[in-house]
Design a protein that fits this description.
Helix content is about 40%, strand content about 15%. By secondary structure, the protein is α/β, with parallel strands linked by helices. It has two domains: about 55 residues, no CATH class; about 80 residues, Arc Repressor Mutant, subunit A (Orthogonal Bundle), CATH 1.10.10.10. The longest helix is centred in the last third of the chain and has 16 residues.
């Protein structure tokens, strides 16, 4: 399977978009460290361009949800958590306990946190919308400044 990638500038730093012929496989804040990455070619494709376009619309407050074919590798539990992340409404946040309850396992907050931290498709699968139970910003692969920017961006858009 051929994986292509492109860097894309965001308001808080660059991201790396990885895609095969039919799916976005990752959107990361640093180069992908996996077996796929060793075979990845820096090449712009129609799907990567579509992802860049939708990201730009999101950053311009013209888009609140993404309409991209995504497919991330992960365990069944991780897949369940990542799917549920896409149901957190734009401009809203959930805590890890709420996310655990939403997947039907209210005692799985730590496991949910671990799965959230392994989400390979940042922004599109909005793991930045998950915060600590006390309202604090918790870890984020892109750093807390990026998470804070994304959350402020979404809450500001709601006011327009």
């Amino acid at each position: 399977m051929t994986i292509n990638y492109q860097q894309y500038p965001t308001p808080f730093g660059k991201v790396y978009i990885y895609a095969d012929k039919s799916h976005i496989k990752a959107l990361l804040f640093k180069p992908w460290q996996s077996s796929h990455a060793a075979r990845a070619a820096q090449k712009e494709t129609a799907l990567i361009r579509l992802c860049q376009q939708q990201l730009q619309e999101y950053f311009n407050q013209q888009r609140q949800t993404f309409d991209l074919p995504i497919k991330a590798g992960g365990t069944e539990f991780q897949q369940q958590v990542w799917k549920k992340l896409t149901e957190i409404p734009y401009g809203k946040t959930w805590n890890y306990g709420q996310l655990a309850s939403a997947i039907g396992n209210k005692n799985a907050s730590r496991a949910v946190g671990a799965a959230n931290g392994k989400n390979p498709i940042s922004i599109i699968v909005p793991c930045h919308r998950v915060i600590g139970a006390n309202g604090s910003l918790t870890g984020y692969a892109g750093g807390l400044k990026a998470k804070e920017w994304l959350l402020k961006h979404e809450s500001m858009a709601k006011m327009l």
